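Weekly sync notes, structure subgroup
Attendees: PM, AL, DS (notes)

Item 1: joint prediction request from the bench team. They want all three components modeled as one assembly rather than separately. Inputs as received:
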Amino acid sequence: MEYFFQQLINGITLGSVYALIALGYTMVYGIIQLINFAHGEFFAAGGYVGVIFMSYLLSQGAPAWVCLSGSLILAMAYCAMLAMAVEKVAYKPLRSSSRLSVLLSALGMSIFLQNGLMLTQGVYDRAYPTELTQGGFEFGTVMLSYMQLFIVSLTAFLLVALNFLVFKTRIGKAMRSTAQDKIMSALVGINSNRIISLTFAIGAGLAAAAGIMVGLYYGSVRYDMGFVPGIKAFAAAVLGGIGNITGAMIGGFIIGMVEIFAAGYISGEYKDVFAFLILIGVLYFRPSGIMGENVDDTRV
Amino acid sequence: MIWLFVLLWPLLGIKPEGLEVATTFSVWWRIAIGCASILVIYQLNSVGAFNFITKPVGEAVGGAKKATSTLPFAVWAFAILAFAVAYPHLFGRYAQDVAINCMIYICLGLGLNVVVGLAGMLDLGYIAFYGLGAYTYALLSVHYKLAFWICLPISAGVAGLGACIIGYCSMRMRGDYLAIVTLGFAEIVRMVLNNWMSLTNGPNGITGIKAPGMYWPDFANGMTLEHLWLKKLSLIYYVILALVIFTIIAVYRLNHSRIGRAWEAIREDETAAEVMGIPTFYMKLLGYCTGACFGGMAGAFYAARMRFVSPESFTFLESAMVLSMVVLGGMGSIPGVILGALALIALPEIFRDFELYRMLVFGGVMTLMMLFRPQGLLPPKRRMKAEKD
Amino acid sequence: MSEPILELRDVHAGYGSIKALKGISIKVMEGEIVSIIGANGAGKSTTLMTICNIVKATAGDIYYKGGCINKVASDSLPSMGLCQVPEGRRIFPRLTIEENLDMGAFFRNDNEIADDMERVFAMFPILRERRRQAGGTLSGGEQQMLAIGRALMSRPKVLLLDEPSLGLAPLIVKQIFDIISEINKLGTTIILVEQNAKVALSMAHRGYVLETGNVVMEDEAKKLLDNPDIQKAYLGE
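Output from the run, pasted for the record:
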């Protein structure tokens, strides 16, 4: 039973990360129907900016909370700008072309960014400073580290903030209306390009936060770390019903849980297989995802 | 647009040791100069500064086109075939190696072309069938000593069967859902290959796969048939050449058959195709399996040529590579896909000296291609016509 | 005669190689209802979309309040007082009615938005009842009301209406058109694109007849109604 609770905690932690990344996929997809392959790279870039500033601040003798929040904010801001730049360069000129072209453009950007990271940051793992978040609470043998607490509470905060932004503010309404009908949004005076840029920025900011969390949790970052979590997070977004924000959160937690429990109870090597099997199973019975609406999706 | 590139790079100048500019800056300015020079050329071109070159070249190309169109297609096909046959005698080992690689990807590209270009299904997990084919031959060869030529159809069959199973689960889905499910299946296949130690030897791969064998009449002492292993590179080359020719003919025939037209109808409008009486589910499944069979064949050849397989060779990046060949070359067009494969395999080989920058440039070029020529290098004629009207 | 509030001078536009407008000239005076009628594919909707710069004019100029608006982005037109209710209504189906109306006033930042919303609710009481419902759950007539209400939220000087009667029951059509003339009486200039030529002309001051991308006739609405050719071609008499 204790083992179960331990796994539950780990699952929630991992699920938080997936949920944050999945949100970026789902928001971008919702607004311009694009699988943004470069999204995983924003996540990796966030991890790098995080480690760079965290070690820098730490070497300057800043207190732990300054290191954490400072690098978090910088990473999120940097990735937001990066995402906006990528959107302007690689996606915006293709707004009216076929979806496959944009998809390949995204794929190209993903490869480009990943290799850019490799060239400038090196091929090897870069270690995160671990002294910031050591220790934790112990309940019997169940261990809740400060780090996990940090990850989960930060995720909860970001999710609540995002929900507020999207569902309660006018900018959020404008985002949703742009997603639903771009021409009509222009006719009521919404600058859809700006809204799309903003969507990319928010998604990438969340991914950057996830990047830092993963760096802290596993102790290091790597130039190609964006790929596998990126795919799983995308699976999570699809699982929840792509384009649906609540769905992406739920999907992220489900994928995280499945992965941890499969690793804990069935087989560590096949944990990723189970994540994808769940995805395929759910899509087989509910082709538009858990929360998805039955939108006609015939355009390739 | 330049400021965006400026924006892309500041991250990369920051290292954990503090702000270390030197190495990063060198990367950065190389890219910046590359972009700037392209931009300058592009601008100059658009204002007509290169007219003195482009005009005669354009005229020459126009003239050449006229000349070529007067010659029948058969002559061209024959000329290309003759060149392909003579190729190993003209060039060295390295060039042959590259050519073999190219042709494997041509097979893959043509197979995927059936799925994406004709039937319009976005398949991000195509490489799984390549892997299935490769492992099928590898296992049969190592454990049962079966010959390559027997295993070739078996591999294609296994890949096709795999596609049937995957397709049966996923053909109901449309568009991007299909894309992610195929991607998921490909990852599952790769992970199973990676982790099923007793069968696949895991990440270490399988070694000791036999090369294709062949009976060759030996006239030295009368007429006897001698069995020989095609280990020489030039002989292997002819095997893949034959496979490519077979694939081209098969895909061409499919493309111009009723089935091919049904696929195109489904691609253009699935609902309309369905109400016109095309059994869309089975047609899509058929398209998916057909594509997979070609992939499986290419895989079997790959295993025979490398005499070694490991899950490393079947990652998502390979799927992306094949997909970009299809799209860069021109979806649904056979010469386009061939050109795409040549461009994506041969060109990076030429730039091998810039090893590190290869993938970076590859990614960048892919995006640029989509920005400036989204229809691909050689789009199919039928579609070109449709767009002109 | 005073300056027209909106004027199209020899406007050409099209989609790719298809030419939809081949030199349209239209003048709209302040306070008028101008109705544009014509058959399917005559270029009526394209005219409105070109005014709003969704479809780019390939030649010719569009003037609004004396200034050329060819190059003005679509999304800054509503703040200038030019607003369109497009064909098929195009409400945001997954936003609630209140949110839909709020989006109509997106560019505004004053504290009278709530008052304006009250005004719209007073005009269409059914919308008030369903204010928290998603737009997609409304019936066709209610959606049309919502679309008009949403446009009114931007306090337009010129309101472009594209086929407000499309697919609606006759009773509701009458209700909608009553409201349109009421809006006009409150000082909004209206351009009304309609296939239902009879209703459109009977409430308009002036009318234009489009045929395959050209203006073939323009006159006072009454005269058009009495014109035997028009009667034969568009009024079904």
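Discussion: Chain B touches chain C at residues 389 (CB under 8 Å).
Action: AL to compare against the crosslinking data before next sync.
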